[in-house]
Structure formats: structure tokens, C-alpha cells
Amino acid sequence: MAYLAQYFTKDHFSNLLIQNIDFRGPKVIVDLGIGDGALTVAAIKKWRHAKYYGVDVDKERLDSLNERLPNVRLHNINSLDISLGKSIKIKMGTVDIAICNPPYLNLKKRSKYKTILRNAGLNNSVNIPCYTSDLIFLAQNINLLRDKGTLGIIVPEGIVCGHNFNLLRKDLLERHDLKMVIQLEPKIFNKTEAKTYILILDKGQTRTRTVQLCKADLNGKIEKRIKIQKTDLIERMDYKYHASANKNIKGKTLKELGVTIRRGNYSKNELEKAKQIYFHTTSNWSINGLSLRNTHYKLNKEPVIAKKGDILIGRVGRNCIDKITFVKSGKIAVTDCVYKVSISEEFREAVYNRLKSEEGKIYLQKVIHGVCAQVLSKKDLENFKVFVYKRHVHKK
Ligand SMILES: C[S@@+](CC[C@H](N)C(=O)[O-])C[C@H]1O[C@@H](n2cnc3c(N)ncnc32)[C@H](O)[C@@H]1O
């Protein structure tokens, strides 16, 4: 059922999540959105004597699970209700371990969700522009846990590196003890390309200053790990970014070089309808640059126009990082799927060459996110680093 986001965890990854929860003799374990029980089954193998609770909105699934796991207390209710504890007969703030692979769906910003976030100590997160079910499930799990109880949860990439979730990361890093972020291989769930991560955190504050960022292989084995200071993780907390070259390059960011980055202010459809010429992701991204006509536009508002010297970069789409070119002559309106990068002549060549270089591509590949459509954010582009030598600086 797509609307319930029923993507079930494979054994390798259930085991990986459970193995990384370090907790002796838990008494109560809860699995919100238990589905086919993958996480609970792995947990039972490790902690046989705990009392298990499972919650799911899909009644049929619980019926079949009931036969397989008769000792798990199953509840057919919505995990996003404020009265969750009462409904499953658990006092909030008493659970030892919460394990969860929540649905990833957009939610309306309801006041009950704000209460759930605040109760979990995620006060900044109340201001996140769009709420998602994974965000509220995360908060509900924290609400269920006792102080120093542990949560192991599989979350989508947005939570780990999306700009919208900066406030959540700040809360998790400052109000709770985030211990590990494990990057999973893409496409490990059937029928979705969601990029996912396992978070392991203990409820409540500590003085620990670092978090382990890891990368797991397709068999659920951790193959690489690094330790990163918590203060460096608010912007993003994915292994691929922190292990990447860009972070250590001593260069200047596009922002520091005074680059102006604008995306088009009309969609392709709007420009097409108005019978205007445009440059879009489907246009010809010639590596030799673009020789254009000097088109004049008849539109209600001034379109974003790329002109001689501007660099163009694809903003969305699977291959957006391969879409980099520059305007040799003439001008053209760009659509909202294209960035126009305007930069003074002295740095132009250095920026273009770096964007097209292998290292440049590695950086762009690492920062683009999005479940299906890959998106290069303006902020990530502004943070792109370029070596500028003295001749770039002094040349007039
Ligand atoms: C991504 S699946 C994960 C299932 C299982 N935990 C696993 O790891 O394989 C999410 C589960 O959450 C359930 N679900 C969706 N919305 C829910 C809600 N509001 N309350 C409780 N369960 C929900 C779905 O029916 C589905 O079984």
C-alpha cells in the first residue's frame, strides 16, 4: 500500500540496526509502524526476555503478524496520535528501546504535531517548514523512551542532510545524545529509490562531543567510519559529505568569490505556453559553450536571462551534475530547473574548470539529494570550493 509507505526492512539492515543498539537487559521495546515485524524479529533474537509492543495502522498486516509473533502486544492504531501511550497502555517516558522504520510521507502542519515535537524536546523543530511522518514518528519514539533509553530508527536523507531539517539536527545534537549515523546503500528497499540512514540516539543530554558517521555495504556490514564533532553536524550529518574532499580543500567558496546564483523564475511550461525561447535541462548543454541569439522577451515579469560569460548548471534531474555549460555569446531566458551563475571575469575560468573536474563532480554528486528527482541546492552550490591563485586575484 503506497499511501502507508509500506517498505519493509531486509534482514541485513534490521540486524545492523539492532546490533548497534548497546543496551543491557531492556524490559520494554516498542516498534512503531511494525509492518511485517522485521525489526522486532531481529530484536527478539538479541533480547529474548523483553516485553515487546508493535503498532501499525494496517489491520490485516497485524493479523498475520499475530500468528507469527504471538508474544508481541500488537495495536492497530495511528502512531501519530497524542494519546499513543494511553492507547497501547504504556506510560510515555518509560520505554527502554524504540526501534522504527517509519513511513516517509508529507503531513499537514497540525498543532498536535507541534505538541509532539515540543514534548520530545525538539522545540526548534516546530519551525521546520514542512512536516513529514518520519519527523513526527521520530519525536513520538523519543516521547515513549525513558531518559537514557535508546532509539534506533531508519530515516530518509532529508532528515540527515536536507536544509529544511537543520533545526531538527540542532535539536537532536543539543538536546539528545546522537551516537551514530549509518549511511545505507541506495535502493535497499523494493520499489523506492529513497536514500536512507540509521540513527542511533539516547534520549537526554550528555557531554559527548562527537558522533560516529558510518557507511554500510549492501550486506549491512559497516565498511567505513569517521568521528565528527557535533558542532560540525548541524549543516548535514552524512558520511559521504564529511568524508568528501571538498571539506578539506583550502580554497574559496563561490559565495566568498562574490558569485551570484539565480534560478529561472519561469517554468518550462510557462515559457513554452508564452511561445518564448528558453534554456532548460533538456536543451543542448554543449561542452563548447553556447552561441545564442539576442532574444527579446515579451512576458509579464522580466525572466532570468543568461548572457555572455554566465555559467549554467542543471538544478534538478538525475544527471543534473553533468549539465554544466557557459554562454559564449548572446542571451537566453533560463527555466526554474537551471541555475545561472554570474561571476567576474577573473575567476570565471577557474570556477568553470573546477565544476567540470572530477573532484568538482564528486562534490556535486555528494551534495545532491532528493528521493527520485535529484536536486542541487543553491546553498550547496554557494559552498562549492575553487582554488584561486594570485593571477586570478590580481588580473584586471
Ligand atoms: C516503511 S514501513 C516499515 C515496516 C517495518 N517496520 C519494517 O521495518 O519493515 C512503515 C510501516 O508503518 C505503517 N504505518 C504507516 N502510517 C502509520 C501510522 N500513522 N501509524 C502506524 N503505522 C503506520 C505502515 O503500515 C507500514 O507497515
From TrEMBL:
Class of the enzyme per the UniProt entry, highest EC level? transferase
- Could you mention a single GO BP entry for this protein? DNA restriction-modification system
> PROSITE patterns annotated for this entry?
N6_MTASE
EC number(s) from the headed UniProt entry: 2.1.1.72
Quote the Pfam families the UniProt record gives: N6_Mtase (PF02384)
The protein's annotated catalytic reaction(s) are: a 2'-deoxyadenosine in DNA + S-adenosyl-L-methionine = an N(6)-methyl-2'-deoxyadenosine in DNA + S-adenosyl-L-homocysteine + H(+)
In this chain the DNA methylase adenine-specific domain maps to 6-248
Q: Which keywords has UniProt assigned to this entry?
A: Methyltransferase, Restriction system, S-adenosyl-L-methionine, Transferase
Q: Which residues form a coiled coil?
A: none
The organism's place on the tree of life at top rank: Bacteria
Signal sequence interval, chain numbering: none
**SUPFAM superfamilies per UniProt:** DNA methylase specificity domain (SSF116734), S-adenosyl-L-methionine-dependent methyltransferases (SSF53335)
- GO molecular function, a single term: site-specific DNA-methyltransferase (adenine-specific) activity
The record's family statement is: Belongs to the N(4)/N(6)-methyltransferase family.
Protein name listed in UniProt: site-specific DNA-methyltransferase (adenine-specific)
According to its UniProt entry, this protein's organism is: Panacibacter ginsenosidivorans
